[in-house]
Amino acid sequence: MRNCILPSLLIALLSGCQTNDALVAKNDDGYRCEQVKSIGSSIPQKRCSTRAERELIKADSKESLRNHQKAGVFTGNTDF
Fold first, then answer.
1. In order along the chain (80 residues), what is the average pLDDT of each group of 10 residues?
2. Rounded to two decimals, what is the model's pTM?
3. Within a domain: residue 43?
4. Residue 25 structural domain
5. Which superkingdom does the taxonomy of this entry point to (predicted)?
6. 36 domain residue, yes or no
7. Complete edge-to-edge strand list for the sheet that includes strand 24-26
8. What is the rounded CA–CA span in Å between residue 34 and residue 54?
C-alpha cells in the first residue's frame, strides 16, 4: 500500500510544479495573452491582443505624451 501512495504523491507534487506559462501565452502570429491586475483589485484579468494592436496602442501612447508635453499639460503634483 505504501509503495502505491508514495509514487502517486510524488507525481501529483511534480505535476503541480510544472509551468504552463499561464502569465504569458504566445504564438507565432503575434497573438499574446497575459494576466493583468487592475488598480484596486488583486484579481488578475486576462488581456489578449495581437502584435498590430499592441503597436497601435504604443504609437497612440507616444503621440498622446508628445501632445501633452507640447501643450504643457501636467498631471499629478504641479508644485515645483
1. 56 51 58 91 92 95 92 64
2. 0.49
3. yes
4. 21-71
5. Bacteria
6. yes
7. 24-26, 32-37, 44-49
8. 12
